[in-house]
What we know:
single chain; mainly alpha; 4 helices; 50% helix
Amino acid sequence: xxxxxxxxxxxxxxxxxxxxxxxxxxxxxxxxxxxxxxxxxxxxxxxxxxxxxxxxxxxxxxxxxxxxxxxxxxxxxxxxxxxx
Length: 84
């Protein structure tokens, strides 16, 4: 992922993390690392029955193995492939 500031310069990773932490506090939600959003996205898509290839594409991976081994986690009480 690549993002820029209002001035068009690259966002420093630490500044992104600081801003995201502040948003979590303001929203009253549990703080998580910004990167953890990728894992959450992959896991939720997997739980909903999304195709592994589609999840891989959304995350920008070149290997389904990386996507499925590292980025997906099915929560207890949930099963993959239940809805989509």
